[in-house]
Structure formats: C-alpha cells, structure tokens
Amino acid sequence: MRREDRQIKDRAVIRRIMDACTVCTLALSGEEYPYAVPVNFGSCWEEETVTLYFHGAPEGTKIERMKRDSRAAFSMAWEGAVTLTAPACGSTMRYASVCGVGRLSLVTDPQEKRRGLAAIMRQYERAAGGTEYDFSAAWGKTAVLRLQVEAITGKSNVPRDGSAGWPLSSAR
C-alpha cells in the first residue's frame, strides 16, 4: 500500500469498518473481463478467520463465473464527511474501507446456509444475536455463497483520535 499511514491491519478495527458498511462489491473473473457487482453481505469472524456470505438466485452470472474460477475479490467502504476546498485538489472525503481476496463457493450444508443468511440479516439490523429468522418462504429459491477470506486489509483517512467519528472509534 502506497500510503502506509492510512493502512489498517488491526482486525478489530477492520471488523468495525465492515460492521458499518451496507454494500460489498464482489469481483469475479471467469471470462474475458472481470465482473464486479454490489451485493448485500454478512460476515462471521472466528479468531483470525473471516467468512463473508452473500445470497442470490441459484443460477446467474455470479454462479457461472464462480464455477469457472472460484477466486474473488471484494471491497466495501464507509463514507464520512466531504470537505470541498479551493483549489479542488485539496478536497477530500473521510472514508474507511476494507478490501480482500478469497475463494468463493456455494453453501450446500443447510446449517451453514441458515448461518450465512442469519449473518446477512444481522448486518442490516445490527442485532446482538440470538434472533431466529424464518427463511422458509425463500429457502429453495435462494443460494448462499461463502467467501473464505484469505487476505484482508483496511485503509482510512479518518483521524485516529476519533474526532471524525465512527467507525474507527471504539464505541459502536
């Protein structure tokens, strides 16, 4: 990373950034051009292991490309305040972002499928956990994809003193 002063390696901070994000861009190969698509997501953290889950139709571009090449990249960003200045090259936006790579696969185990769908729901409701969800209406029509993250990093220009606010401050 060119701007090492903006790099984030601390997993707890990376997790806080991810918790603040609502859209993940998933990038796949498998054809002449890469394919990047914004998707809803959920994450599960187990010590140093990060797993991202996505849902969608059991057929389509994501599934076809995943079958050809399981390697995938992802990115997500939290956007803060914009500061416009004169001259324009001094303008900036406060941000915190997370990028990574991993292997994408279709979840076939019903328990893991339920776990992945619950992780996606938690991402958007900010629940403390323990909630039971009824997925029966869409169970057979919904595919769940797992991205086993192999490398992850964060980047931010939010001041480390917390003056620009969350997600880098320790409070949620």
Protein model, in words:
The protein is an alpha+beta fold. The protein has one domain: Electron Transport, Fmn-binding Protein, Chain A (Pnp Oxidase, Chain A), CATH 2.30.110.10. The protein contains three helices and eight strands; from the N terminus they run E-H-E-E-E-E-H-E-E-H-E. The two termini are 28 Å apart. The mean pLDDT is 86.
> What best-fitting shape do the alpha-carbon axes yield?
globular
**Strand-residue proportion:** 35-45%
Overall CATH architecture = Roll
Query: What is the strand tally?
Result: 8
**Helix vs. strand class:** alpha+beta
Helix share, percent: 10-25%
CATH topology description: Pnp Oxidase, Chain A
Poorly predicted parts: none
| Ends distance | 28 Å
Q: What's the level 1 CATH class? A: Mainly Beta
> What pattern of helices and strands is seen along the backbone?
EHEEEEHEEHE
Largest sheet: 8 strands, antiparallel
Number of helices: 3
Radius of gyration: 17 Å
CATH superfamily: Electron Transport, Fmn-binding Protein, Chain A
Number of spatially distinct domains:
1
**Mean pLDDT over all positions:** 86
Keywords:
3 helices; Pnp Oxidase, Chain A; about 170 residues
What's this, in brief?
The protein has helices spanning 11-20, 61-68, 110-125; strands at 7-8, 24-28, 35-39, 42-46, 49-56, 71-83, 92-106, 143-156.
Which helices and strands appear, and what pairs or packs with what?
Elements: E1 7-8, H1 11-20, E2 24-28, E3 35-39, E4 42-46, E5 49-56, H2 61-68, E6 71-83, E7 92-106, H3 110-125, E8 143-156
Antiparallel strand pairs: 1-8, 2-3, 2-6, 4-5, 5-8, 6-7, 7-8
